[in-house]
Amino acid sequence: MAQITLNLTELTPAHIMVLFVSLGAVVSGLGFYQPLLDFGGAGAAVPLTGFGHALVTGILDALNQQGLLGLFTGGLTSTSFGITVAVVFGYFISILFDPRG
């Protein structure tokens, strides 16, 4: 779907990534993502839309537990492992390979 969007529009890859995360968040907020996740399993959880879903579910859970403070902490708490892994692996890859190559 991302490749089709890239080919048919003048959007950049960065715009498409933000679009997909935002769509996942909106669909999750409307309550339609969880049934898709139940049906598709990891295939629906791994892509960018799954990251948007994780942000929204983390925020909603934290709102129920912590109140308004959860609005600011829930999304990062629920996705902190994935963000940390991306940063650490990105760091090691930048050490191993010369990006100016």
Explain how this protein is built:
By secondary structure, the protein is mainly α. The protein has one domain (2-96). Helices cover 82% and strands 0% of the residues. It is built from six helices and no strands. It has helices at 2-8, 13-29, 33-40, 42-45, 48-66, 69-96. α2 packs across α5 (48-66) and α5 packs antiparallel against α6. The model has no long low-confidence stretch (mean pLDDT 90).
Helix content: over 70%
Q: List the domain count as a whole number.
A: 1
What summary fits the major beta sheet?
none
State which percent range the strand residues make up. under 5%
Q: Tell me the span between the first and last alpha carbons.
A: 31 Å
**What is the radius of gyration?**
16 Å
Structural class: mainly alpha
Number of helical segments?
6
* Average residue-wise pLDDT: 90
How many DSSP-defined strands? Answer: 0
Shape: globular
Concise synopsis of the structure shown:
The chain has 101 residues and is mainly α.
What attributes characterize this protein structure?
101 residues; mainly alpha
Write the topology of this structure.
Elements: H1 2-8, H2 13-29, H3 33-40, H4 42-45, H5 48-66, H6 69-96
